[in-house]
Amino acid sequence: MNNIPYYGPAEVKASLKYEELVSALELALADFSKGPEGGVSQPLRATAEVTKFNGFLAAMPAYVSSRQALACKLVTFYPNNTAKDLDTHMAHILLFDETSGEIKAIMDGEVITAMRTAAVSAIATKYLAEKYEILAVLGSGVQATAHTEAFCKMFPIKKVNIWNHRTEGAEKLARYVKESLGIEVQVFTDVQSCVEEADIINAATFATEPILKEYSMKPWVHINYRRSSYHLRILTAVGAPRPQWQELSAELMNNSTVYVDSFLSATKESGDVIKSGAKIYAEIGEVILGTKKAEINKKTIFKSLGLALEDAVSARLVFDVMEQNKKTAKP
Ligand SMILES: NC(=O)c1ccc[n+]([C@@H]2O[C@H](COP(=O)([O-])OP(=O)(O)OC[C@H]3O[C@@H](n4cnc5c(N)ncnc54)[C@H](O)[C@@H]3O)[C@@H](O)[C@H]2O)c1
Ligand SMILES: O=C(O)[C@@H]1CCCCN1
Hints:
- Helices cover 37% and strands 25% of the residues.
- It contains eleven helices and 17 strands.
- α2 crosses α3 (110-128) and α3 crosses α11 (308-329).
- Nicotinamide-adenine-dinucleotide (NAD) is lined by residues 77, 82, 88-89, 113, 117, 139-144, 164-166, 169, 204-207, 211, 238-239, 241, 304-306.
């Protein structure tokens, strides 16, 4: 138990690159959707509710055989922390040796939670969207910022539209987009106008009631009359992680082709799925595997709950980089 390495947020951030994360997670999501022969073991996360303080503590263990990644994330979610100027999600990840079960490292899990969630939304977008010029972002917190960064790195985004329920937040994110990413940006005060022209929409808020309604999305952007000239838009939705919460209206869910990260998580944890009764078309891993084709004649939603396998794969990537750094630093 002595000398277990600890990697803080700065070390984790320096070790992870979106390109590598996307490739590794794509393979792991495909393994997951293969079923038992994919070599992924991942129960539904166990959650201890702290009702008095509107929070929870979740344990998220997973094993991904193809990456030799065995890990458990412990994450707290306290939405009321915003008022205290504290992070709303706090997380640590324990990484284990797959052969012996010994602990190999403990690391910050907040950077991983932000980056792996954005990377998975980017994977869904890569497979399911057909045009990548205008990004609409609903929310301006950790996830909205990570998604903006990941999407702008991975796709040829020309403009970012931002809406947040508090305009100051949207303006802060807009300054980051303009000054650090060098991309045109516009802040909106209503959701409808923000998403109207977008090719990709990302929703990452604490909304507990739908903020995005049926009328807010057109299924296609019509360029001319031939099918090849239409392009499919995508909504990646990462919020509303509780069975009673909704970020998207039931009409929108029911009039869309719904893809998820995990059938089990979506049907047990997602208010958007449970309250709307919407049918799930496929896991994104099935699309990556090619066992389910992308549906192209409807609105497209990718509903993400967040999976332990994503944390395990990311933690393993960080560990490998840190070990490599150690070797190269030795005289
Ligand atoms: N799918 C996943 O893998 C995954 C992973 C992490 C977080 N999440 C979820 O994503 C969402 C955003 O998380 P975050 O880390 O960015 O949190 P955050 O605290 O950094 O940001 C929360 C955002 O929601 C906004 N907001 C607060 N109350 C709102 C309301 N009533 N209506 C609309 N917007 C509101 C805030 O202004 C802020 O922009 C949460 O629901 C979180 O649980 C999902
Ligand atoms: O996958 C995650 O890490 C988060 C934990 C909190 C709720 C939303 N999903």
